[in-house]
Amino acid sequence: MKALVTGASRGIGEQYATVLARDYKCDLLLVSHGDALQGVADRIAAEHGVNVQAYRLDLSEPDAAEKLYAKTKEIGFEPDILINNAGVFFFNPLTETDMERIEQMLMIHVMAVTKITRLFAKDMCDRKSGYILNMSSLSTWMAFPGIQEYNATKAYINNFTRSLWYELKPHGVHIITVTPGMVNTTLYGLPENLRTLAVKLGINTPTERLAKKALRRMFHRRKKCMPGLVNHIFKPFLAHFPDWPVFLIMKKIGKYQK
Questions:
Q1: Which has more pLDDT, 202 or 27?
Q2: What are 180-227's pLDDT values in tens digits?
Q3: Is 82 helix (H, G, I), strand (E, B) or coil?
Q4: Rounded Cα gap, residues 136 and 117, in angstroms
Q5: DSSP assignment letter at 1
Q6: Whole-angstrom distance, CA of residue 19 vs CA of residue 155
Q7: Under DSSP, is residue 135 helix (H, G, I), strand (E, B) or coil?
Q8: Which residues of 204-230 are buried (b: 16+ CB within 10 A; e: fewer)?
Q9: Which long-range contacts (CB under 8 A, 24 or more apart) does 238-247 make?
Q10: Which phi-psi region, left, alpha or beta, contains residue 49 (left: φ > 0; alpha: ψ -120 to 50)?
Q11: Three-class SS of residue 27?
Q12: Alpha-carbon distance 107 to 87, whole Å?
C-alpha cells in the first residue's frame, strides 16, 4: 500500500508515518514545510525498508492542494491511504492575533483539508477503495477563550468527515475522524516536566499510542476514534462546563499564549 501523510516532519504526523512503514509496510509520501522533513523520510526508509519520498509544501498556500495532487501525478504516487494531519496551534485572544496567523489556521484546517480530501477521494471512489483519516480534536466540543479559532476549525473537520462517511461508504472508501485530547507533542508550548506529568496522569496521550490506535480503527472501518479513557469521561461535561472556572483559568494560563 501507499500512504500520503501531511504534517509529517514531527509529532503525530511523524508517528503516523513511522507506524505505517513499520507495521503496515506502506510506501510513503511525506508532506510538510518543516526543515526536518527530509531527515524524517531518510530515517523511516532506512529503518523500515520502504520507499519514502518527501515533498516540502506550505499547506497554507491557496493552491497547496492542487500542487500536492499534481505532485502525486508527476511522480506516479497513487495513495491508498490519505492522512490529513497537518495543523497549527496558538493560544491568543482573537483581537490580539495577527491576521496572517488567523488566515494560516483557516487555510490549513479548513481549505487544505477540504480540497485535499476532495481531490484524492474522487480517485479513490473511481477505484472503489481507499482510506482517509482526518485529525480533529476533543476541543470540537469545547468553547474556550484563546483557542476560539482552533476549536471552531477542528469542529469543522469533525463534522465534515462524519458527513463524508455516508457519501464515500457506497463507493468502497472509508473515512474516519480522530478526536484526541492533549497529545504529548511540543504543539501546545508546555514545558517538558508538565508534559511528562500529564502523560503519567493519563491526560496527555503519547504519539505512538495515538497513531497505532487511530490506524487500527481506520483499518477496521470505524467512523471515529477518541484515544484515551479520560477523554471519554470528560466529553459529556465539556458542553455544560460552567463559566466561572473558565474565567479563573484565563487568569492562570496567559503565560502560555504565543
A1: 27
A2: 877 756 554 555 555 454 444 445 688 899 999 999 999 999 999 987
A3: strand
A4: 14
A5: -
A6: 26
A7: strand
A8: bbebebbbbbbbebbeeeeeebbbbeb
A9: 238/138, 238/141, 238/142, 239/141, 241/142, 241/143, 246/144, 246/145
A10: left
A11: strand
A12: 10
Strand partners, 132: 82, 175
Domain that holds residue 32: 2-256
Tell me the residue type at 239: A
Q: Quote the distance between the C-alpha of residue 223 and its chain's center.
A: 16
Nearest to 106 by CA among 68, 175, 64, 154: 154
What CATH number did the domain enclosing 72 receive? 3.40.50.720
- pLDDT value for 129: 98
The x, y and z cell numbers of residue 127, run together, are 477505484
Q: How many domains does the chain have?
A: 1
Which residues, including other chains, have CB under 8 Å from residue 147's CB and lie 6 or more apart? Answer: 89, 91, 139
Helix (H, G, I), strand (E, B) or coil at 231: helix
Q: Calculate the average pLDDT of the chain.
A: 87
For residues 71 and 63, give the distance between their C-alpha atoms in angstroms, rounded to a whole number: 12
Grid cell in block for residue 247: 474565567
Q: What angle in degrees, to the nearest 10, is found between the helix axes of 37-48 and 11-24?
A: 20
Dig out the grid coordinates for 78 from the structure. Answer: 497513487
Cell numbers 474556550 correspond to what residue? 144
